[in-house]
Amino acid sequence: MNWDDTRIFLSVARNGQILAAAQRLGINHATVARRVTALEDALQTKLLERATTGCSLTAEGERFLEYAEVMEAQMQDAQAVIGGMDVELSGTVRIAAPDGFGVNFLAPRLGEFNEKYPNLTVQLVPLHRSFSLSKREADIAINVGRPEHGRLVTRKLVDYSLNLYASREYIEKHGVPLTSDDLKQHRLIGYVDDLVFTPSLNYTEEILKGWRSSLEFASALAQTEAVRAGAGIGVLHAFIANQDPTFVRVLPERRIERSYWLLTHETTKNLRRIKMLGDFIVESVLAERHLF
Questions:
Q1: What angle do CA 89, 90, 93 make, to 5 degrees?
Q2: Which CATH fold topology does 161-257 show?
Q3: Which end of the chain lies in a sparser environment, N or C, as judged by fewer CB atoms within 10 Å?
Q4: Residue 92: its H or E element
């Protein structure tokens, strides 16, 4: 089996098209097609389903992709260590993150990473309850709390706090609650209960037993915007609300602590592009942990 054929297969798998892979590699598209066929012949299996609209991996192609990426990582390590080369990062890395952390903290900082590695495509997608690293739905996940199961490599990012907030406009109209029981007389904003994908996010009961929301949202950012607009009192991320003078902290003694963890799958932990982006996220959080 020829490594160069494997390298070309990786480009096709990541770009979804032979023509796009050829353009990225700087070679003729007929050469790309021929080399992938040679690889399939060597492995005696079909790796790609080819159509006029693009290519998709067969089941065997999905399996071989994992081995191919391990081979790529080893080749890059050999070049970097033995040859002393600064190996260019390419391909795609997908990050799944809760919207509060992903949109407010991570998204504004990814441009810095992209400037350093312009040939690497970084995707940021919402974390949801059916999410799976093992099925390669993402390469890196930011999780609330440390998972107890799965073939995962975990790194703690930071502890963060959540507090009760209202807008100044709301406080002027409805007054300030002085006790948790006083919250029963106010409009409360919370999560949609059956869409809470981890028990770690079911924190309203820690504030008030029998908490009943007037408005419920599946998104932390939607809750933030509702509170900002004066719709009620909600539990918000302190690293978001504390940056905006619109928000007033309510019952400051009612503080909730959680933690963010960075997860990668055991089979991809050594892929250089995943490792480099993971390290960047860890370093970014460490440099600004005072925000949390």
A1: 100
A2: D-Maltodextrin-Binding Protein; domain 2 (3.40.190)
A3: N
A4: strand 91-97
